[in-house]
Structure formats: structure tokens, C-alpha cells
Amino acid sequence: VKGRYVLHRITPEEAKFKLVHVKHVTQGLKGVPFCVTHDGRTIRYPDPLIKVNDSVKVDLDTGKIIDFIKFEAGQLATVVRGRNTGRIGTVVSRERHLGGFDIVHLQDANGHKFATRIANTIIIGKGNKPS
């Protein structure tokens, strides 16, 4: 979209994991906690610190959680839907709108600020370093 997505090679180590966005965290039968990700995965017994909108690094061989990144200001994020699709920036702030859509304000490497819905973003790194 608008030339923002470019294919590039990844290392064999990078091919062993995937970053996924947590959509839902709840308890199932007999109190078993689980989280549901944007790609439809259901992961049982996640870390209790993992909340909705966090990103989780999943091992593709085992399906287990390797690491997670909290959704907070200062984290590196990419926009995957909407008008700003493909843009990467640092989370500046989050506007909470009860009963509506939360808005995330981001700033890209060139200093341009833009905003999008929280559901359109995925956290891809801690600070300015991609995971």
C-alpha cells in the first residue's frame, strides 16, 4: 500500500517465531486462563502480566510464548489497517474513549505525528529496537 511494504530477507532465527497481537484474555473451563491472538491462536496459561493489545512472541514449532511486549508509550509499533497502513512509529500516547474506539498517537522516524485506532496497531519492539 503506497509502497510502504517491502519484502526483505529474514534470518533462520527470525523464521522460528512470530509476533502476534493479543485480542482477548479470559478464563475458560475450570478456571484455565487463555489468550486469543489476532491470527486466531488460542494460547493456554499465558503470563498473568499479558493484557489485551500487548504483543506476544510465539515459537512456531511449539506454539508457546517466548516473550511479550507491553502496549505503552515509547514502544515501537506498526500500523496494519486503515489509512496509515504500513507506517512504523513510536507510541507517543493513548486516548481512552469509553464506549468507543481508543486512539493511539504515533511519531515516525521523520518526526511526523499521526493517529489511528488501537486495533489497527501491533507493537513490534521495545523502545526503538524491533523485536
UniProtKB/TrEMBL annotation:
Q: What's a GO cellular component annotated to this UniProt protein? A: cytosolic small ribosomal subunit
Keyword Ribosomal protein part of the UniProt annotation: yes
GO molecular function terms noted in the UniProt entry: rRNA binding; structural constituent of ribosome
InterPro entries, sorted: KOW, Rib_uL2_dom2, Ribosomal_eS4, Ribosomal_eS4_C, Ribosomal_eS4_central_region, Ribosomal_eS4_central_sf, Ribosomal_eS4_KOW
Taxonomic classification = Eukaryota, Haptista, Haptophyta, Prymnesiophyceae, Coccolithales
Spell out the Pfam families in the cross-references.
Answer: 40S_S4_C, KOW, Ribosomal_S4e
Question: What keyword terms does UniProt attach to this protein?
Answer: Ribonucleoprotein, Ribosomal protein, RNA-binding, rRNA-binding
Q: Does the keyword Ribonucleoprotein apply?
A: yes
Q: Name one GO biological process term.
A: translation
> Can you name this protein?
KOW domain-containing protein
Family of the protein in this entry: Belongs to the eukaryotic ribosomal protein eS4 family.
- Which segments constitute the KOW domain? 70-97
